[in-house]
């Protein structure tokens, strides 16, 4: 039963779901009366949902309205439209509106719509005080209760017949602002107002002015009075007295100040009257200012005073302004149209003027230290006036100048600048110096005691002709130096080193080294080095030549190595040659000695070997030789003996060994003295001999000279034998 009910319930639910099919066609947002609304007018934001349904059924809608991304309105309704009403629109309602509708688990949003509320409400201005004193401040507050920030406030201080004084304040987080205006002198009745501006859609909107607020100003004291006694027009030498006074409501912290050209002449505090007195001079003419201050309040009064001239400034004249020393100078002081005055003549000095004479005229013989600025002073009725200064220059003659090279020596390296100095020990500055190269003026310098000339165009053939002259305003005229000759030093160029013999040198022999340069001024300093782990100086010498020869005697194996030379002159530039390599080898006689020590033992060994071989042969043949005589001996000695080794190769070595007469002594001892007179014959015998080491490397022949002496009765012959010796073991 329960199973049947469950099946029926599920079937009904499925049928209900199939009947509630719908879809959103569109969601749109609109504003009434329009997207541009005047400030203060009513406004409505309408969100409408267009939905299609399969069947007619009730559907609940959740409407949400956003302004600039923030939620401002939300409602649930069975209708397809929702309305968000704003009774009084303000500029803060300007923005981007958007709505979203949710129904049956589905949500759809509208496009954005921009709404612009034009205009601003009228701001409200309030003042903290309605009545203030001069020097105090007025504090104002301007606000727009129904508007939202950011806002830009403009406060205005309005006076009669003058342009309003404005102050601007920007507020980013509040809809009001405050400001202070100071109350100045002559501010009697003040009006204040404010207005507000706002930037919307890149357009600046401005509100209408606020209510105007009236502020009354009271004076803490009256404007001061400034008077001159006896009057404002007086003559030099008279005494002038100035008085400044005011009327004050409250005698506290009040101050009176008297000024002329911003210079304070006198001041009093907590008093109503200020006095100032002085002897009138032309400098006293001008505008005087009396200022009364109390707190922030300040009032001023001006008075112009004219002082008439009692007598003009004196004039100082001189018989001459440029004089030679020991000449006579006359100074005269005068006043145009006025003769009754006390005159004095002085010379200006930083430590105080130097007095010469209390008179209108002065005559003196001048010296160099009398150079300076002279003035005269005139005094009438206590008024002292000073003339314009007159400059007097007294000159001593210049001495003969000396011209020299700044570096000291009268020489210069080719390509380098030459700096000359012309100096005159005596003479009153300024001195005019002129430099000459040849007859051409190169430079003119005005200085005190010396001048410097730099010649940057030095050529190889520039040798002299420099001079300078000096002069000042002395009547003696110009003095000229001696002519200065300059040596132009040509730097070393292309140093080279050679040797004889070159490359290989026999031990014990001499070697000549030649160091030379292509060009360079003499003397030239030559150095010859051998390069090892460190530089070794072998030879150095200065020569008035472009080359130098150095002979090293008895070269040894230790002298093998790399050599180079360095050349320099007064140009102070070392020029290094390319290196050369010297190898010290054995001398010819040393090679011969070594060969002798090596070859003599070898030759001795070979000779001993042959002697032993022949001795053995002759010992074996002695009985046959005695029986058969010379014929058999000849056949035996001419017989060719050959022997073949296992490899089938033959080795021979040729050589000649001369044997002594004692070679056959042991055989012929029984012959007695007759043997010494026997005739000597040479027989060539060719013998093939196998090398005892059996090394098949080379063949050779050895010729052995053997002397055989026989008695006259035996006709013994001497035989010349050629023997093919044993091969070289090597």
Automatic annotation (TrEMBL):
Membrane spanning stretches: 593-615
Xref: InterPro entries: Ig-like_dom, Ig-like_dom_sf, Ig-like_fold, Ig_Fc_receptor, Ig_sub, Ig_sub2
Superkingdom of source: Eukaryota
Pfam families: Ig_2
Signal peptide extent: 1-17
Region (Disordered): 643-730
Alphabetized UniProt keyword annotations: Disulfide bond, Membrane, Signal, Transmembrane, Transmembrane helix
Coiled coil location: none
Composition bias, Basic and acidic residues: 660-674, 707-720
PROSITE patterns in alphabetical order: IG_LIKE
Entry-linked Gene3D superfamilies: Immunoglobulins
All residue ranges annotated as the Ig-like domain in the record: 220-306, 312-391, 401-485, 491-583
Name this polypeptide is given: Platelet endothelial cell adhesion molecule isoform X1
């Amino acid at each position: 039963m329960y199973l049947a009910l469950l099946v029926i319930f599920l079937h009904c639910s499925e049928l209900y779901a199939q009947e509630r099919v719908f879809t959103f066609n569109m969601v749109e947002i609109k504003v009434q009366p329009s997207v541009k609304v005047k400030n203060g007018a009513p406004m409505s934001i309408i969100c409408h949902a267009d939905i299609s349904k399969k069947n007619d059924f009730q559907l609940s809608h959740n409407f949400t309205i956003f302004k600039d991304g923030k939620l401002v309105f939300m409602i649930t309704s069975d209708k397809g439209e929702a309305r968000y009403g704003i009774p009084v629109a303000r500029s803060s309602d300007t923005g981007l509106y958007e709505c979203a509708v949710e129904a049956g688990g589905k949500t759809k949003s509208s496009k954005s719509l921009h709404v612009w509320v034009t205009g601003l409400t009228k701001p409200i201005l309030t003042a903290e005080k309605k009545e203030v004193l001069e020097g105090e401040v007025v504090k104002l507050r301007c606000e727009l209760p129904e508007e939202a920030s950011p806002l830009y406030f403009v406060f205005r201080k309005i006076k009669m017949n003058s342009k309003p004084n404005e102050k601007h304040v920007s507020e980013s987080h509040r809809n009001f602002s405050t400001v202070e205006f100071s109350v100045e002198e002559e501010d009697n009745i003040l009006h204040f107002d404010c207005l507000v501006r706002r930037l919307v859609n890149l357009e600046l909107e401005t509100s209408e002015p606020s209510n105007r607020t009236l502020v009354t100003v009271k004076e803490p004291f009256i404007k001061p009075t400034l008077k001159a006694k006896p009057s404002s027009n007086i003559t030099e030498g008279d005494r002038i007295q100035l008085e400044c006074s005011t009327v004050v409501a409250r005698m506290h912290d009040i101050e009176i100040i008297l000024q002329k050209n911003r210079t304070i002449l006198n001041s009093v505090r907590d008093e109503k009257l200020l006095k100032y007195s002085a002897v009138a001079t032309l400098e006293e003419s001008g505008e005087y200012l009396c200022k009364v201050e109390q707190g922030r309040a300040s009032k001023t009064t001006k008075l112009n005073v004219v002082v008439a001239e009692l007598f003009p400034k004196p004039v100082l004249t001189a018989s001459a302004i440029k004089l030679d020393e020991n000449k006579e100078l006359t100074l005269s002081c005068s006043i145009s149209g006025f003769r009754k005055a006390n005159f004095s003549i002085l010379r200006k000095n930083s430590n105080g003027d130097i007095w010469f004479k209390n008179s209108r005229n002065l005559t003196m013989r001048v010296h160099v230290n009398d150079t300076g600025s002279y003035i005269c002073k005139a005094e009438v009725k206590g008024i002292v006036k000073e003339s314009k200064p007159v400059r007097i220059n007294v000159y001593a003659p210049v001495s003969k100048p000396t011209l020299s090279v700044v570096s000291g020596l009268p020489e210069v390296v080719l390509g380098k600048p030459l700096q000359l100095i012309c100096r005159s020990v005596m003479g009153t500055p300024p001195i005019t110096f002129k430099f000459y190269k040849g007859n051409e003026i190169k430079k003119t310098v005005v200085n005190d005691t010396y001048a410097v000339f730099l010649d940057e165009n030095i050529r190889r053939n520039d040798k002299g002709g420099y001079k300078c002259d000096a002069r000042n305003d002395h009547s003696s005229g110009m003095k000229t130096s001696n002519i200065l000759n300059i040596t132009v030093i040509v730097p070393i160029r292309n140093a080279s080193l050679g040797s004889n013999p070159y490359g290989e040198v026999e031990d014990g022999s001499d070697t000549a080294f030649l160091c030379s340069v292509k060009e360079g001024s003499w003397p030239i300093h030559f150095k010859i080095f051998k390069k090892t782990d460190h530089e070794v100086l072998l030879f150095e010498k200065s020569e008035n030549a472009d080359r130098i020869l150095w002979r090293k005697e008895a070269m040894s194996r230790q002298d093998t190595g790399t050599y180079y030379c360095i050349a320099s002159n007064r140009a102070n530039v070392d020029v290094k040659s390319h290196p050369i390599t010297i190898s010290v080898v054995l001398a010819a006689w040393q090679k011969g000695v070594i060969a002798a020590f090596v070859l003599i033992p070898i030759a001795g060994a070979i000779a001993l070997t042959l002697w032993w071989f022949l001795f053995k042969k002759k010992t074996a043949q002695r009985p046959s030789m005695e029986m058969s005589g010379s014929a058999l001996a000849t056949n035996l000695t001419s017989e060719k003996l050959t022997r073949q080794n296992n490899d089938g190769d033959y080795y021979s070595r040729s050589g000649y060994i001369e044997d002594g007469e004692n070679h056959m002594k042991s055989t012929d001892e029984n012959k007695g003295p007759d043997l010494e007179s026997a005739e000597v014959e040479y027989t060539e015998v060719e013998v093939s001999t196998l090398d005892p080491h059996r090394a098949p490397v080379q063949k050779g022949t050895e010729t052995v000279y053997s002397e055989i002496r026989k008695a006259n009765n035996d006709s013994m012959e001497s035989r010349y034998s050629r023997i093919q010796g044993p091969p070289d073991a090597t």
